[in-house]
Amino acid sequence: MEKIVVSSVGILSALGCGMHQNIQALLQKKSGLHFPVHLQSVHAQEFLLGEVNFSNEEMAMLVGLQENMQGLTRTTLLSLVALQELMGKIDRALLRDEPVALINASTVGGMCSVEDHYLDFIEPGKRGDFIQYINSSDCGDSTERAARYFGLKPLMATISTACSSSANAVIMGARLIQQGVVKRAICGGTDALCRFTLNGFNSLKNVDKGPCRPFDQTRFGLNLGEGAGYLLLEKEEDAKARGAEILAYLGGYANSNDAYHPTAPSPDGAGAFRTMEQALKHAKLQPEDISYINAHGTATINNDAAEGLAIQQLFAEKVPYFSSTKAFTGHTLAAAGAIEAIFSIISLQQQAVFANLNFTTPMEELSITPVTDTLENVPVQHVMSNSFGFGGNNVSLIFSK
Amino acid sequence: MIKHPLYIKAACAISPQHSFGDTPVLDPVVPSEGNRFVAVDVDYRAFINPVAIRRMSRLLKMSISAAMKCLQNAGVSMPDAIITGTGRGSAGDMQHFLKDMIMMKEEALNPTFFIQSTYNAPNGWIALQSKSTGYNQTFVHRGISLELALLDAQLLLTETGDNQNILIGSYDETTADYFVVKEKLNYWKKETVASEHLYQNNETLGTIAGEGAAFFVVSGEKEGATCSIESLEIIHQPAPTMIRNKVHEVLAANGLTTDDIDVVLCGRSGDVRFEAWYNVLEDFTTQTIAGFKHLCGEYETTSGFALWLAHHIFSQASVPESTILQKGDRKEIRHVLIINHFILDTVSITLLRG
Fold it and tell me: pLDDT of B77-114, one tens digit each?
């Protein structure tokens, strides 16, 4: 098997627009959580959220679409802005001339717009401006718009496996390249904050009103966030042939299912354990080779217990630095896998591991604790990034220097 | 896109027709009502735990039941992987939660509808019921969702070896809300059409709405298979010439000509906007041409119904009368070609071998 490399990335999160702002915030331990400015919800001033600091109009301006916002949702705009960074670092003619796949991920498509107009949608015979948003209810809407905007072809796909969606997009892209279906793949995901998702998680009573506390005994739940992240994957030899900078190697990955419960992980962490173990095997690495785990770490009661136990069991005596960066960005759902894959790459490049913010009290059921401070000048060779979703959908990715 | 054959060991469909196998298949043909098809319910309790079933949406019940029955038919208790495609997932649950949220001003909401609205909810349930901890994936890309799941299965068999049993499925439902919403984009005919006359009513915009779930057990091994998918191609924003060229390209790549094709299943829907996409059918003058959207209606994953029908045709070695648009002269059925489209600008071409 030829090695798959990451040769360009693009990111937009509550920490900022682009790699530089995200790196600075991670190193300076500056969380992006705040009360939302753009999300319209009766709960807006109750919940800290990882909202991106741009209005839709500002994002449209960044990609030159301010005169043509027909049917453009926040989901798509986040995606376009993040992709623009990725595209800015490569020769676009190359992408036009050689087959590329856009593998995108979303959990609720353009729900951020659909929920504003839904009563108009379903009123028989009613017409109006809202019609432009009808097709945005599809998860594939942002994918198709992005592929057209950047001229990406021939293949596009959209994945939706809840919180592991864009980690799955990375796996799919790598496999399409390995088997020669396409030469390159742009993989990632996008999700915009919306009332639907906020109220959905709130109805499950697992949204924390304050900053979330991953892997902490006092944790209550997650903070939602929004954003988009994308990675350009290609074979090592293709990246080298065009003189591209190699940001990281995608050393291994695994997707497996809990087969335990529709939403809750197996409490002993068996599903997470299996997925991490398979990813190590796929990467031909031993547990002690992992320098840092960017955990899923949603700060929900169930996830952190299961994931923590799995890490403890798999890594035993040699538990590497691990942390959740969800307290920086909020849980960005379909974008989380890609955003945290990019954080893993930043960890490799900066030789740094990131603080698990807001940690004070070790969990009773765990003998391990996350890294509480951002540490620089740490040797980081291999990073594991976990994403676990509803439906028992578990993914682990491993990135290497 | 890639050439790894997918051998279909079993197929199972819940559709607006009698397709589940507990009654004569496609007999009698069920007509649409008011330009809308509704899937025929089956005895879901035979496949789902009675406690769990009470809170389940119709879509969940349909997809889990079709999946479990398909596994039974294949004699596979635990699939090695579960890969699905859906345009809208549990649209009913999503709409339910969304309307409650609006009406109740974001207070006191029932989380069940939110949980079940997740596009991969059926995958999770099927994995749970079949104890399948293997690879699990859900594609949600409009009219090519199932096609992407099939592509993924081809990749997987190449990676893992041919002896794997992969459960592939598609599911979509047409709710009353969805029917109203998409009417605004001219998805459905304004005049009420009898489904058996769908193809004669091909001079106006729109078609008939449909729904269904279809599941397949596929493997890389020929033994015990009824037929195989040999080629699969997707075209975005097609033009009639592109479709025609791609059909001939697929045949040539498989060492075949139009003469080798015995049956063409076409996704014509009576919508005037897409009739020209099927001009390629003119190249098949001696073959049987069959339609299926007068039986299942239009939705994102009609390719699931078409694939089920192709499997049925191979297993019966005959084409159901109620599907035939043009009677061919072939005595044997060796190759079936599916040409299908979805309203949002995609076409797929699938070549099957018996």
Answer: 999 999 999 999 999 999 999 999 999 999 999 999 99
- Asked if residue B28 has a cis previous peptide bond (ω within 30° of 0), the answer is yes
Q: How far is the C-alpha of B15 from the C-alpha of B29, rounded, in Å?
A: 11
Return all residues near B73 (Cβ < 8 A) that are at least 6 apart.
Answer: B10, B11, B12, B21, B217
Q: What is the pLDDT of residues B172-185, one digit of tens each?
A: 999 999 999 999 99
Whether the CB-CB separation of B124 and B131 falls below 8 Å is answered with no
For CA atoms B78, B81, B87, B89, the dihedral sign is positive
Question: Which of these, B83, B62, B212, B94, lies nearest to B139 by C-alpha position?
Answer: B83
**In the structure, how many helices (H) and strands (E) does chain B have?**
10, 11
- The Cα–Cα gap between B114 and A200 comes to 5
Separation CA A319–CA A287 (nearest Å): 8
* Cross-strand partners of A229: A11, A189
Report how far residue A245's alpha carbon sits from residue A256's, in angstroms, rounded to the nearest whole number.
32
> Is the omega angle on the peptide bond into residue A154 within 30 degrees of 0, that is, cis?
yes
Nearest C-alpha in A relative to B182: A134
Is the minimum CB–CB distance between B111 and chain A shorter than 8 Å? Answer: yes
> Cβ(B297)–Cβ(B271) under 8 Å?
no
> Token match 């009368």: residue?
B321
Residue B9 has pLDDT above 90, yes or no: yes
CB contact under 8 A, B140 and A257: no
A46 touches chain B (CB under 8 A): no
Instruction: Please give the CATH number for the structural domain made up of A4-241.
Output: 3.40.47.10
Cβ-Cβ contacts under 8 Å for A270 (sequence gap 6 or more): A258, A260, A310
Rounded distance between C-alpha atoms, residue A197 and residue A201, angstroms: 6
Instruction: Judge whether A148 and B132 are in contact, CB under 8 Å.
Output: no
- CATH topology classification for A249-400: Peroxisomal Thiolase; Chain A, domain 1 (3.40.47)
Tell me whether residue A194 is one of the annotated catalytic residues.
no
Every domain of chain A and the residues it spans: 4-241, 249-400
Q: Is A187 a catalytic residue?
A: no
pLDDT tens per residue, range B187-219? 999 999 999 999 999 999 999 999 999 999 999
Give the pair of three-digit tokens for residue B332. 């044997």
Please state, in angstroms and rounded to a whole number, the distance separating the CA atoms of residues A71 and A54: 18
Annotation says A331 is catalytic: yes
- For domain B228-353, give the CATH superfamily: Thiolase/Chalcone synthase (3.40.47.10)
CATH architecture of B6-219: 3-Layer(aba) Sandwich (3.40)
For B255, counting Cβ atoms within 10 Å of its Cβ (0-12 exposed, 13-18 middle, 19+ buried), the class is: exposed
Q: For residue A48, give both structure tokens.
A: 């800290």
Crossing angle of helices B58-74 and B91-103, rounded to 10° = 160
Set A163, A187, A194, A212: catalytic member: A163
Q: What residue ranges do the domains of chain B occupy?
A: 6-219, 228-353
Interface contact flag, A391 B185, Cβ < 8 Å? no
